[in-house]
Automatic annotation (TrEMBL):
Transmembrane segments: none annotated. InterPro entries: AB_hydrolase_1 (IPR000073), AB_hydrolase_fold (IPR029058), Carboxylesterase_BioH (IPR050228). Residues 69-256 form the AB hydrolase-1 domain. SUPFAM superfamilies: alpha/beta-Hydrolases. This is Esterase/lipase. It comes from the Bacteria. Pfam families: Abhydrolase_6.
Length: 281
């Protein structure tokens, strides 16, 4: 019997006998990220970075000079997972700042959730020059969308392998871990209370998105279904949808088509800015 099968069996039993306790136990698992070390291919990018500390102890890595682009990794992720994209952005003349999310890397905290990630981006943006773009992967993408509703200002936004609503993420996790119905309900309510925001509000269909954007997703993503990208695109009038045939949930970050699309989006913003300045002069 595998460890996952054993855990699911225990959760199924305890979830019926003591649903609140089982929900609390899985809530702690869900909100407590593991510290995963960088892969060998990430190490050169890590070595070339400048480590900076922002407000409230948030840690970040910085590369390059020029207009600012803010990156936010996903759950149990790292800034250097964006290595290929960072090289392309720096080479194109951008300054890249990539956060360690709350409870990740060198940033403080033991627990994390999308609301904490969104607030971290707001705090970072308050200390950085005006943002040319914000780019988020997975939960970082969902949190970037949320941050845009909480006051984050950026000229463009990119989501990569991001879910369209947090409720779907919670339901998939609870089902995967074998929680029965009542325990699933209590698990979602507990996460909701900790986040301090009704989970139904963490849904892109409720957002007002008025900046240009790019929604990227791989068809073979095993963690976040590609239909989530379609939902984000449908709710975002100014977005372009890029569906890649392969790339899974993580490898998509190194796809040249991603960096090409991001640079094309930023170049389009540069042209639009130049036109506005010409008309104003």
């Amino acid at each position: 019997m595998s460890s996952l099968t054993w855990v699911r069996g225990v959760n199924a039993t305890l979830g019926r006998l003591a649903p609140e306790w089982a929900a609390r136990r899985m809530r702690e698992v869900f909100i407590t990220p593991r510290a995963l070390p960088p892969r060998d291919w990430e190490l050169p990018m890590l070595a070339s970075a400048e480590r900076i500390t922002l407000r409230f102890g948030l840690s970040a890595l910085r590369w390059g000079e020029g207009p600012a682009v803010l990156l936010m990794h996903g759950w149990e992720g790292r800034p250097t997972q964006f290595a290929h994209l960072i090289r392309e952005l720096v080479g194109a003349g951008y300054a890249v700042v990539a956060l360690d999310g709350p409870a990740h890397g060198r940033s403080p905290g033991r627990h994390a959730n999308p609301v904490l990630f969104a607030r971290a981006m707001l705090e970072a943006a308050s200390e950085l020059p005006p943002l040319r773009a914000v780019i988020g992967h997975s939960m970082g993408g969902a949190s970037a969308l949320l941050a845009s509703q909480l006051g984050l200002r950026t000229e463009a936004l990119v989501t990569i392998a991001a879910p369209s609503r947090v409720l779907s993420v919670l339901r998939r996790f609870a089902a995967f871990m074998g929680l029965p119905r009542e325990a699933r309900y209590r698990f979602i309510r507990q996460v909701e209370r900790l986040a301090g925001m009704p989970v139904k509000q963490l849904d892109v269909s409720r957002y007002s998105l008025d900046m240009p954007g790019l929604v990227v997703h791989a068809e073979d993503d095993p963690q976040v279904p590609v239909d989530e990208a379609q939902a984000i695109h449908a709710a975002w009038p100014g977005s372009r949808l890029l569906r890649l045939q392969a790339g899974g949930h993580q490898r998509v970050l190194a796809d040249p088509a991603l960096s090409d699309a991001v640079l094309a989006l930023l170049e389009g913003q540069e042209v639009s800015r130049a036109r506005r300045l010409a008309l104003a002069s």
